[in-house]
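ok so I'm stuck.
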Amino acid sequence: MDLYRFCSHEEAKLLSQGVTITNTTNHNFDGKGGSTSVGFCMTQDEPQKAWRSLKGISTLDVCLHLDIPEELLTKSKGKYIEYDMEHSYDSILVAIVYKDEWCITELRPEWLKETIPLETFVPDCELEAVRELENYKRKIYKTLLRPTTMTLEEKATKFVDHCQAVVTSEGNLYSEAAVYSAYLTGAQEALASQWRSVADKLPEDEEYVLIDGPKGVEPAVWNERYQAWDGAEGDDYMYEKDAVRAWMPIPESPETDNHV
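replied:
not stuck anymore, here's the structure
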């Protein structure tokens, strides 16, 4: 079956070097992830279409064109974004939806047909904007955890302003009050957590955590088998173990009946 997968440069390099890679991550993350997929996730959508649906969700360094025997694949549901595509340079986010995708826990190099650089089909202006947004999110993570004299309320207000500036062009999914409340709740929970040195202790296998690595603070998944850090979705190799100095668990959201 012809399939496409967006991933990191590191993952693509391993396959091109003849390395078989394995991933058993359950992307549901105990209900947090939404996806029903396990392992490596792929779509039948052409890259030009899939790119827009996956920006902000998957790592989008390169696109792999794969030919995998259908009997080895598991059909599942994955998280995608729908846009109003009336104007190619002014797409408006409509909704987050769940679409059919195919997953597998092992990728073999002989299934790789080609590696397609995003630059060959994504407009330069859009590619640059999304990568700037990813860098911005990393800065936000660092801001959340950096010591400061600002009150939580002041930081929440500042965070709302930042969110408005970033997502206005694609439509706001949540009200300012919802973003403010979510920030306060998350910050209060985060204060109860502590950074843990990689030298002292590592996360559980496939545990979703925050790491302090080469690019600053960002989410990741610990891969016990390969002693490495995978991307936030758990299906992209990111860093070797020693490239990360410290990590911290992501607190559970408190259960409440009050919704903004």
